[in-house]
């Protein structure tokens, strides 16, 4: 392991164990970046320099925004406690909003997606989009997890293109790995927050239809959120063939991917689609909506259908589930795509290069 060259204060709403994709990203950076020379110190809603369990005041209906407001006052104290050479914030809806540049060290942002992509010009979220845009502009560099998010940063938020690097989310290709082929799998899978934008009702509606054509097919929903009770009610009407598991452990999630014939991601938008990549690493083909973030995964084991087109979603699922040869081809393509483009070994080196570039630029400015 190389000598540590800098301490990075990583600001993230999510933590380990993760609630969603940003928690996985934060936990992976904490583990992998010391291998390439950077000590990562997490600062989250559950972990601070003063220990876990601190109460974050609830001022809004959005927990990530409450954490951001707490950080607004406490960043100088965090800087004194950690003395970082670099700040790294995880942004996007559900992420950290910084109202001013953190003290004493350069700032890198990771843009998982943008408020503009998620909500358009909706009045209720317009102030948050303005704060987000300003934060990306005053940072020294922005890592975009997908080309579509990079386009939004440049076009919607006027972030200079030379300040943006497109580096995808990494996947642990040892933890998420295949086990069993077509004959050993029997499940249609949904993983994610149980909120309308993730398409939970569309997943359930598709399974109702598919269960009539494929008698041995089961379905699982892994995740928590406001639609949990509605999903459980729907499951009760399907004779035990739909299992709503709620929030699951990492080990349980890995097993769910491995027993799945098809992962369905009917979201209205994604930053990149971490759950899709985890399924792909497990040899599970992905059927997703053709929306920002997921569009960037087209091919390589991923089949896309238009948003809000239930018949197209159903037809694509039937085509994959009824054709073993096609399933095996998609499964192999999915594994190869993740190994080639999305392993943490590859992604970690790319992020380390951004860290070094920003630190080198700051050093030359000081000199």
Brief rundown of the structure:
The chain has about 375 residues and is α/β, with parallel strands linked by helices. The chain has twelve helices and 14 strands.
CATH homologous superfamily assignment of the largest domain: Glycogen Phosphorylase B
- Beta content comes to 15-25%
Instruction: Please name the CATH architecture of the largest domain.
Output: 3-Layer(aba) Sandwich
List the domain count as a whole number.
Answer: 2
CA-CA gap between termini = 29 Å
Radius of gyration: 21 Å
Assembly type of the chains comes to: single chain
Count of beta strands: 14
Kindly state the percentage of residues in helix: 40-55%
At CATH level 3, the topology of the largest domain is Rossmann fold
Average the pLDDT over all residues and give the rounded result: 90
User: In order across it, which strands form the biggest sheet?
Assistant: 2-1-5-6-7-8
Along the chain, the helix and strand elements come as EHEEEHEEHHEHEEHEHEHEHEEHHH
Shape verdict: globular
Structure overview:
The protein is α/β, with parallel strands linked by helices and 367 residues long. The protein has two domains: 6-170 and 343-366, Glycogen Phosphorylase B (Rossmann fold, 3-Layer(aba) Sandwich); 182-341, Rossmann fold. Helix content is 42%, strand content 17%. It contains twelve helices and 14 strands. Strand 7 (141-144), helix 5 (147-157) and strand 8 form a beta-alpha-beta unit. The longest helix has 23 residues, at 344-366.
